[in-house]
Amino acid sequence: MDMNVQRSVVAQLSARPQVVEAGPFVLGWDPTSPSKYISYATPRPGAAITSADVAALVAAFREIDRIPRLEYVVSAAPDLERQLLAAEFTVEARHEYLVCTPDTFADVPAPDGVEVAEPVSDADFWGMISAQGAAFGDAFEVGPADVDRSRRTVARGGVVRMARSRPDDLVVGGGQASPPSEGVAEVAGIAVTEPFRRRGIAGAITAAITREVFARGVEGAWLEASGDESWRVYERVGYVPTGKRLYIALD
Fold this sequence. Notes:
It is a single chain. The protein is of the alpha+beta class. The chain is 34% helix and 29% strand. It has 7 helices and 11 strands. It has helices at residues 2-14, 51-63, 80-86, 122-136, 144-155, 201-215, 228-237; strands at 18-22, 25-29, 40-43, 69-73, 90-100, 114-117, 159-165, 170-177, 184-192, 220-224, 240-249. Strands 4-11-5-10-9-8-7-6 form an 8-stranded mixed beta sheet, sandwiched between helices. Strand 8 and strand 9 (184-192) form a beta hairpin.
């Protein structure tokens, strides 16, 4: 599963609006966003990597005026962290990723007064992205490029779902899954705004996205949890700890 997940990350980055092939690395970036969380690199699993490759990758980031940053499954490049630290990169986070299969999946219905649905209009996407930003504490104004990015995810075969309260039609959260690759899809961005948390909405969003991913023939969905509360939400849907990922940057 580690290799499948890492290959799927390579495929996701290869579908960014702009892609740089830097030796054993794929750097996917979006000229419309300065966010380091959108433009980053990852190694091809099992590739031999040298310090010269790392230097060339840093130069490629400098060329496009982005922060050198990588996300990857640790076992796919076991010696890479040592080389990056030697190049003065700093570890941002170490996360364990979880995997759900059709056999472990457990559906979670939306609570009363909340609907989980696919966004359709620009206003739907705008509201969902705004709710995600507020939930994650990101201070940014949603723009047309953000809506276009979510629409591209859908157009390429990904899944996007939003949660809204009834009857006021207020969008209170959302999430998405990447287009499938290597038989797996990444579920990400699961978020609910503060006033609506602890009602089971995050679990319902996760379940709705995962259910749709499996309906499209995907063998496994994977995601990351950042805290005990998130773990409980995802384990309730049937996600199980499987491997480790590293986030590292030359900030």
